[in-house]
Design a protein that fits this description.
alpha+beta, two-stranded antiparallel ribbon, 8 helices, CHP02117
């Protein structure tokens, strides 16, 4: 019994140390050299934080529509007059599709999240988003940086751009969709590590490992 308790305490201590180290150690270790400005006005992107999940929101303009031409045919209202933001989130197929709310939590999606699961991308639109809300973090990008972010997100979809189709019957509402994505999901490499990688693609530094939104937010404040 005592041996089991000691093992559990060691495991908890190791997890705490790993999370702390993953937050304070920057990735990349050396701050990347920022490319010279391309002369375009700064573009604002957002990171949206939930209790355990993060999304990336980008301005819904012609550049975004051109980068993801399959969204409109999939039923996402990218030309709707009220749509100002295009929102992307990456995650495990089972937990994303089968657990839209905490009340829908089931053993099998939890088991897959703790082991390994295939991944999907969730895409939605939004109108006005207040940047003063505590769950919103904003970043300014140059035009070149924005293009790199578009490339990163586009390359996260499974298949070629002109062949991407939504997961049949998978949505939370009328106008959002799920798409097959590249990579595998587990508790160590989940939605927040994807968001962190997306932000690193534009030259921001995150922590070495940020499995939860809180440590990702803290690391962004520490290293940028």
């Amino acid at each position: 019994m005592k041996g089991g308790v000691r093992w559990l305490l060691r495991a908890v201590a190791l997890l705490i140390l790993s999370v702390a180290s993953g937050t304070v150690i920057p990735r990349p270790l050396i701050h990347p050299v920022q490319a010279s400005s391309d002369g375009n006005a700064s573009l604002r992107i957002l990171m949206l934080l939930g209790p355990i999940h993060t999304d990336i929101a980008i301005p819904l303009d012609d550049r975004a529509r051109k980068a993801f031409p399959f969204l409109e045919s999939a039923g996402i209202p990218v030309r709707g007059p009220a749509a100002q933001w295009l929102i992307f989130g990456w995650g495990g197929r089972a937990s994303y599709l089968e657990t839209p709310t905490w009340g829908d939590l089931k053993p099998l999606p939890v088991l897959r999240a703790l082991t390994i699961d295939s991944s999907v991308l969730h895409v939605d639109t939004a109108g006005y988003i207040s940047e003063t809300h505590p769950s919103v973090s904003a970043f300014n990008l140059s035009g070149n940086q924005f293009e790199r972010l578009l490339d990163f997100i586009s390359n996260s979809f499974a298949g070629q751009v002109d062949e991407v189709v939504p997961v049949p019957g998978a949505a939370y509402g009328m106008f959002d969709r799920f798409f097959e994505a590249k990579g595998y999901f587990n508790a160590l490499l989940g939605c927040n590590t994807w968001t962190a990688a997306a932000l690193r693609s534009v030259g921001l530094r995150t922590g070495m490992w940020n499995p939860v939104p809180q440590t990702l937010t803290l690391s962004l404040g520490l290293h940028n």
